[in-house]
Amino acid sequence: MGRVLSVLERLDRRWVFLAMALAVAGPILVMGITRKTLPETPTDASRAVFNAVQRLPRGSVVLLAFDFDPGSAGELEPMGVNLTRHCALRGHKMVFISLWPLGGQMIDETITKVLRADFPNLQDGVDFVNLGFQAGNEQVMRVVLSDFPRAFPTTKSGRATADLPILRDVRSVSDFALLASVSAGYPGSKEWVQYVVSASGGKLPMVSGCTGVQTPQLYPYFPGQICGLLGAIKGAAEYESLINEWVSDPANGAAMEVAQSADGAVVVIPPKYLEAQRRMGPQLGAHLLMVVLILLGNLVYLAQRRAQRRAAA
Amino acid sequence: MSEEPRPFVLVVWIMIVLAVVAVVGLRVGLGSGMARAYEERTNMRATVEDATSPSGERVVEWVEWRSVSPADFARAVQKNAAQDSVRLSIANTVGLWIAALLTLAIFSFLYRDNPAYRLAEAIVIGVSAAYWGVIGVWDSIVPKLCGALAHGWTTSHILPNLPAPTLQSQIGMGIALVLGVLLLLRLVPSVGRISVWAMAFIVGITAGAKIISHVESDLLAQTVATMQPLVQPDASGLWTTATLWASLPNVLIAVGVLCCLTYFFFSIEHKGVVGGAARVGIMYLMITFGAAFGFTVMGRVALLSQRVEFLLDDWLWVIDPLERRMVDSVSWIVGVGGIS
Is A238 on the interface with B (CB under 8 A)? Predict the structure, then answer.
């Protein structure tokens, strides 16, 4: 026992990095080859996001703020994809904006991946629009409270927003049926709550999907100031599983995007809509390793303290 | 991370690196290779207004190339071997290799600091700085400043659809231009002190805006959210197990808030009841830090798994979770078959 503890005490940290690499790569390889995912049990916060989108009447205009960049796409891209897909499936109109410089490109990727690929009937400017990045952080939020078109005078591709049918009835941000914020930091969900949701006097319901680092900061706002919260990749996986469960049920009449197997008997979810659930495999491996490492670290610490006390006595 | 590894450890790590190099070599040499990006040609056509044309409009045609999967390329070749509408994208393929090699260069820091890591780090910093510069010009200075103060020139040369500015926005941008110039005067030592005026303006505006929103959303709304009834009786008004479970979160929140506030109350010595409450407050804080750490781990692992997935899927073509290639993953691993 003493020998083991002695080895652990002097363990080169590179072995920990290697173990973490294996704990992450192993499940990715297995799930990549088998194409299986782990089951998810949605929490109340994730279910609330699903219900918030689900309950809106068909044709509602939803504001989707993609405040993230490729640096956090691993966590947030699946949230953006699933929010877009859910809105499209429910027949909502989508207005995409970003307060992060690279957010416009993240929106373009999502539109290509979801709307252009699976909802080719939706028209740019009528059913959805990418207004792209707008500089100014909280100042933009303050402007959209009173005059949304002034904050976003043109779309990402340069069209004047005043001419867009989708924004015909939108004067301020309170005219949107829902604000869905996908946020990696500042400015993001926290600022949307502070500057827009609070100032709108409860007229604007908001749901948020955020990084793991941000999640503890946003939990106090749920369920009072935000009506749903997707925390980190786990929240994304739960939301994704809720949508997949819903579209897989033929009774819902939402099977328009679900690919059929060769014999037409089994409903198959396209693999791009299993991305968040697939990423829970490496999470499992890495978290198990972390638990083991924390236990071993504490064991070594306690042994060291005991040895020091003995030496002092 | 500067400690030198022992010889045995060094040998093991050299073997790991060689194994990775061998996998890359095998994937390059066997099967249908790896790390290739394809693109498809789309012929675009639009009618635009043209005052010089007799009809008042003219037709503009151009070609766009959009990314497609290797499976799309394989299908196009199967259909017509001589086709040229789907082709290998040299630019995207080179980009993919650069992304993979830079990812590995950054990961190499986990072993020790090295020139490859420093090169990748310098590239990230340089590209980010340049990108922010470009963003500043094209998303702030051109549309906001030039669009307001030189609207005619901006619409005729850069952004034709930019709406005309209001007088209010022109005055606002004029003030912003003056303040911006004042800030830049820091670079001139003799008049540098004037830049403090602009700085004072920024600090004042920011503080004013933040105080109002914080009081509204974080102080008042959060205080209201904390003041929940400690007992949540069921519909019949009776005490049941359900009552207990429904009441528990509210009780925990109330106790947590009071105890954490007590911990940060330093005017009274933390002894007796106050000391006990402060100790409970510390426990709450520790649980909060633990939860934050857990979420941070989850976030970092998600980012790591995305990079590993990129290396195994997009670069090495070892796995194919998105079914973008037409051969099963095991065949790719052993290097047989091709894009069939």
Answer: no
